[in-house]
Amino acid sequence: MTTLRLGVNIDHVATVRNARGGAHPDPVALAKAALRAGADGITAHLREDRRHMRDADMERLRAEIAAPLNMEMAATAEMVDIARRLRPHAVCLVPERRQEITTEGGLDVAGHSVALAPVVAALAEARIRVSLFIDPDPEQLRAAAAIGAPVVELHTGAYAEGHAGELARLRDAAALTAELGLECHAGHGLTYENVAPVAALPEVRELNIGHFLIGQAIFDGIAAVVTEMRARMDRARAASG
């Protein structure tokens, strides 16, 4: 049975901080607390518009946490330069639209492979693991493999919204990642109530969860919610065999 890792996305701690423009709550302090509670890594999205994480946050995370740092970012020259300077453990390339509230869909790797291939290569040259955030679609998975990305993160948003057939779609996509030699991660919209079926997929190695954990931490504290999510993931993986 493969180990299932939990990456905690801390973006929305920064969202709360930025609502007042000060320094509290500190996303780096939250990251450290999440790791103490059992998280395996930290995910943070440095957007082009800097609506939540700031450049200084990323620099502090890189300097102050020993656990893997997964930097989400758009495939732009500015972000590639920042990533190559910071050298996080991993980069997850995601689509960005200025007016979106959150990431609304997966990256269209098949339609933009010519532009994405040199970005993947530049990050890999800096010894950064590259992941592509994509919908659970065979064409996108094959395109990700073709441009040399070693990891994909399956977008679980449609599943989390309860759309019919999405769990089967995720199951088929996860199986295809194994055939293609890709490491499989998953995330977006996962909660206590819906995480178990995704955690049970044997090919999935990592779940990245943010909004729910940060929201629930308002009621229960970050240590309690990370511990509970970790336990639910582990039970689901153990039950799957």
Write structural notes for this entry.
This protein is of the alpha/beta class. The chain has helices at 11-20, 27-36, 55-64, 77-86, 113-125, 138-146, 157-160, 166-180, 195-199, 211-220, 222-239, and strands at residues 5-9, 41-45, 69-73, 90-93, 129-134, 151-155, 183-187, 204-209. An eight-stranded parallel barrel has the order 1-2-3-4-5-6-7-8, surrounded by seven helices. α6 (138-146) runs parallel beside α8 (166-180) and α10 (211-220) packs across α11. It is globular. It starts with a strand and ends with a helix. The mean pLDDT is 95.
Relevant terms:
8 strands; 241 residues; single chain
Helices and strands, in order, run as EHHEHEHEHEHEHHEHEHH
Radius of gyration, in Å, reads: 17 Å
Could you give the distance between the termini? Answer: 7 Å
Instruction: Quickly give the structural class.
Output: alpha/beta
Strand content: 15-25%
How would you sum up the global shape?
globular
Strand line-up in the sheet with most strands? 1-2-3-4-5-6-7-8
Number of helices: 11
For the sheet with most strands, the description reads: 8 strands, parallel, barrel
| Mean pLDDT over all positions | 95
- Helical content, roughly? 40-55%
Counted beta strands: 8
Low-confidence stretches: none
Layout of strands and helices, then pairs:
Layout lengths: L4 E5 L1 H10 L6 H10 L4 E5 L9 H10 L4 E5 L3 H10 L3 E4 L19 H13 L3 E6 L3 H9 L4 E5 L1 H4 L5 H15 L2 E5 L7 H5 L4 E6 L1 H10 L1 H18 L2
Parallel strand pairs: 1-2, 1-8, 2-3, 3-4, 4-5, 5-6, 6-7, 7-8
In short:
By secondary structure, the chain is an alpha/beta fold. It is built from eleven helices and eight strands.
